[in-house]
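Support request, please re-run this one:
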Amino acid sequence: MDATGLKAKAEAWLQADPDAATVAELRDVLARGDLADLADRFAGDLEFGTAGLRGVLGAGPNRMNRAVVRRTTAGLARYLKATVPDVTTRGVVVCRDGRRLSAELAEDTACVLAAEGIPAHVFPSLAPTPLAAFATLHLNAAAGVMVTASHNPPEYNGYKVYWENGAQIIPPHDKGIADFISRVEPANQVELLTPTEAHARGLWRDVPDSLGNAYLDAILKLRVHGRGSQSLSIVYTAMHGVGGVWMERALELAGFRNVHPVAEQHQPDGAFPTVRFPNPEEPGAMDLSLATAERVKADLVLANDPDADRLAVMVREGSGKLRMLTGNEVGVLLGHYVLVQGPTRRGKPHVVTTIVSSTQLGDIARELGVAYDEVLTGFKWIANRAVQREREEGTHFVFGYEEALGYCVGSVTRDKDGVGAALVFADLAAWCESRGKTVLGYLEEIQRRFGLYVSAQRNFTFPGAEGAQVIARIMEGFRRSGPSRVGELPVRTVLDYKKGERLPPSNVLAYELEGGGRVTARPSGTEPKIKYYFELKETLAAGEPVEAARARGEARLQKLIDAFIALARERGQPEVGA
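Re-run finished. Output below.
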């Protein structure tokens, strides 16, 4: 688009933008004549897709702002009225985290819903994402909205949508809502009530404190050991997010008396002053937690991301050093714990993970006679598969996880729950302590029985339109000329999920290798990245130290990674980009 076209689009946006702050921002961009910035802001509409919206805050249709959220909410409301007959009775939950503009976006959401005649069940203060998912079920709402950008950097915000089953939306609802949004009038013409008017008409309903208490009661019942610990030393970080007060209360009620919050990161702060990227997986994000843990000689470190739907865990090695567990290790530990140590339940137990997570949970499930599924990446697929099998087969969902630090124990929420999972992991650690074992000792017991799985992920970033073409070229190169072996390992099976044979179509390729390994390639759904996932299974010899087997497995894994990336280079991946 040329400069004249861009400026015309910007002027049209200015006429419809109801927010003086973003109007001033866009006028400044125009005054500076920054055509590259304009081109990015008006490259298209922010796509309503993976459970809603997520993007950089700012003016323009390709940004998160009040204009976009008002139009999105109007589209959502009208889709709900077309598909859920009693939505005007049941209402929609509205929840928010502590990010910049979250309060305004949540208020706009509630006020547009009210103008559409739909009651908004509004959290009066900040709350974690798991509370939004829980409230949608607990209040029998027709849908839920959570204003959050999860673990993205501070310049982002987002808008996550739950369906009436408490799970994030999947097709056809995501496409249906997007279609209704596309027909909504300009933002300054979208009707909304004031909060006072909405309250007066009974269309703004504050969520009571009793709901939070009900959530805490529910996650306390997820514990297996259930005795807490006076001596187990736990460090917890909220990562400047909204999980702090909830996690502290949960651990206190569970009987954990030796808990040390990371003071610098405990209060919600959307600027995230101590971390550039508030994701526990990112380099440096856990530095303050590690320093606190060393100061108090902690046995266990628990970390939530800013909206508290993810969980990271650090534990002590035999040498005394703290080690971060991988997402797969946490998933296998929690899954095995609730399956083997948990109570016997009516209905066949059911566990779910994703096609890029470790295959070990599946091996455990098969040996134990437990129902098991692998689904596409994203917790919406885990939760909706759990609901489907419960409805159709009478299974009992016990646990689901994805390697990107997302876990759900039981059916308290139909989404990943970093607070509930952290509480159950603390319970697991207390159970290990009561047996005179460490968490890593328990993991070793599992590995000696089911095998030691080593895994890794490599991401390559290629920004912009040219980057998208690079990523598409790499994926097409593998489809056109797939390898018969990766390094020393023959390819046993090729799974092209774009064909939609096992699961809904998705741009993912997986190579199952002889001996139990797997390599998976997929473009990210939210960032300009291509992601590669690697896993190998190593069998421990009788009496062999687990460290020796792990070192052997990781050396083999590195060779596998190097071999596959070389194959990607042959299929169009540039040398730069990581």
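The mean pLDDT is 95. The two ends are 30 Å apart (CA to CA).
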